[in-house]
TrEMBL record, chain A:
The name this protein goes by in its record: RNA polymerase sigma factor
Lineage per the UniProt record: Bacteria, Pseudomonadati, Bacteroidota, Cytophagia, Cytophagales
CDD domains in the record: Sigma70_r4
Residue ranges annotated for the RNA polymerase sigma-70 region domain, each copy included: 15-82
SUPFAM superfamilies tied to this protein: Sigma2 domain of RNA polymerase sigma factors, Sigma3 and sigma4 domains of RNA polymerase sigma factors
UniProtKB/TrEMBL annotation, chain B:
Putative zinc-finger domain segment(s): 10-44
Ranges annotated as spanning the membrane: 110-131
SUPFAM superfamilies the UniProt entry points to: ARM repeat
Family matches, as Pfam families: HEAT_2, zf-HC2
Keywords, sorted A to Z: Membrane, Transmembrane, Transmembrane helix
The UniProt record lists the keyword Membrane: yes
Protein name in UniProt: HEAT repeat domain-containing protein
Domain of life assignment: Bacteria
Claim: DNA-binding is one of the keywords in the record: no
UniProt source species: Fibrella forsythiae
């Protein structure tokens, strides 16, 4: 990235190849929207080019990438606040319900959809730490650096997030 | 959980939960946790549910970004590089900041959309202009009116022809009056009218028909039909009216028929006087 910063823009392609899948995964789990996430991937890389002078080289590139990604997510949430795009678990359950699935796999699919919905209903703070540690496989230390806090604070947040998720998920399961 | 007889240990254990989930623990921490778990079914339960949920989270699939993400990225990169170069040479040329300001505020996507809208608008204007040139509104309007008029005429003719067959004299009178509205009477209508003039049982109908035919006397067929009709009429009223029409038209060919009618034995005395007068006027 430092090479990119000093003007070698072709190096950006390398970074794209290495990180765009990871970035997409993060944006997808945060927004539950594949199309929007693809657009956001584009925006993040565009901002990397545009604001490359803000990359100090002290932190890791990945940390910087997540910084930018979080800002993009906040921007898009502002835009979508009116048209709340929630994962429609009902439609999903109906869709898989119609298929000739074995009972067991049907059950699993439904559980998965419910879990996904529960994740979507978590507060952004809680959702973020869970997505980062579970799906992005970032260590608590790395997450702490991205969020500019201590590892201990992240662990507390993960703990609270798990409790919240448990509550939402088990309630939704009970409601069925 | 805090009602457990070892509250502090339970709290400590729970605080290790995040590390335990990601397997991010020191050996000492792990040993302490295992020691506690052996005697605390509540914490066992707690950790088991958490782990189960954690593992279930792993089954939620992460889709792959579509291939267009890559193409779009490289397109964006190219564009960005070009812009950079331009901006650099732009500053050398003393380019104003306005252009860059515009470029910063309009993403490539937005520019594409704007360009597309402008293109559509342009096409619309061109098509409109072309259509106007092709056919000015007044001409198109006139054409439409002409077509409609022609259709109405046709309908009138048809209605008239069928009404003439009607047994009711009133209806037949109405049919004849329709012919006044038909401008270019075709032979079918003229034939029908002459037929009525010669054969209709009702005198009134015949008189009205005669009137209608007199209006169309500029047609040679009508004049000839009228002349021939003279000898066929039996009603004095129609004979007199016909004679009047002949005078009006200055139809000299009718002299022969008029004289013939004069000599006919059944002709009314009053009519004879009229006929003599007519012959004098024509010759």
């Amino acid at each position: 990235m430092l090479k990119v910063k000093s003007g070698d823009l072709n190096r950006m392609g390398l970074l794209f190849e290495r990180y765009h899948r990871e970035l997409f995964g993060f944006l997808y789990h945060m927004s539950s929207h594949a199309d929007a996430s693809e657009d956001m991937v584009q925006t993040v890389f565009y901002r990397m080019l545009k604001y490359r002078h803000t990359f100090t080289g002290e932190g890791e590139f990945r940390t910087w990438m997540y910084h930018l990604a979080r800002n993009v997510l906040i921007d898009s949430e502002k835009q979508n606040r009116r048209s709340a795009q929630q994962y429609d678990v009902q439609a999903y359950a109906e869709r898989i319900g119609g298929g000739p699935l074995a009972d067991e796999s049907l059950h699993k699919e439904q559980e998965m959809a419910l879990l996904q919905e529960a994740l979507g209903r978590l507060s952004a703070d809680h959702r973020e730490v869970l997505v980062m540690s579970r799906y992005q496989e970032l260590t608590y230390n790395e997450i702490a650096r991205i969020l500019d806090t201590t590892e201990g604070a992240i662990k507390v947040r993960v703990h609270r997030a798990m409790n919240e998720l448990k509550k939402i998920y088990l309630n939704s399961e009970y409601e069925r | 959980m805090n009602t457990n007889d070892k509250p502090i240990s339970c709290d400590v254990l729970i605080s290790h939960l995040p590390g335990w989930l990601t397997d991010d623990l020191s050996t000492a921490e792990r040993a302490a946790i295992e020691g506690h778990l052996a005697n605390c079914p509540a914490c066992q339960q707690e950790l088991a549910t958490s782990r189960q949920l954690w593992q279930q989270m792993g089954t939620v699939p992460t889709p792959q970004p579509g291939p267009q993400v890559r193409t779009q990225f490289y397109a964006m990169l190219d564009e960005f590089e070009a812009e950079e170069k331009e901006a650099r040479s732009g500053t050398l040329l003393g380019q104003s900041g306005a252009l860059r300001w515009i470029r910063d505020r309009f993403s490539p996507k937005l520019i594409m959309r704007l360009a597309y809208s402008a293109l559509l608008l342009g096409v619309g204007v061109l098509v409109g202009y072309w259509a106007q040139r092709q056919r000015t509104p007044e001409v198109a309007y006139q054409q439409r009116v002409d077509t409609l008029t022609a259709q109405v005429q046709e309908m009138r003719e048809m209605m008239m022809l069928s009404l003439l067959e009607n047994p009711s004299a009133t209806e037949r009178l109405r049919a004849v009056s329709y012919t006044k509205d038909i401008d270019d009477t075709d032979s079918q209508v003229i034939d029908a009218l002459l037929m009525t003039l010669n054969n209709d049982p009702n005198v009134n109908v015949r008189l009205v028909t005669l009137e209608a035919l007199a209006d169309k006397a500029q047609d040679a067929r009508v004049r000839e039909g009228l002349v021939q009709s003279l000898t066929r009429q039996e009603s004095p009223l129609v004979q007199v009216a016909l004679a009047d029409v002949m005078v009006k038209l200055q139809e000299k060919r009718s002299l022969k028929s008029l004289r013939q009618l004069l000599k006919q034995p059944g002709t009314n005395e009053l009519v004879k006087t009229k006929l003599e007068k007519t012959i004098r006027q024509l010759s």
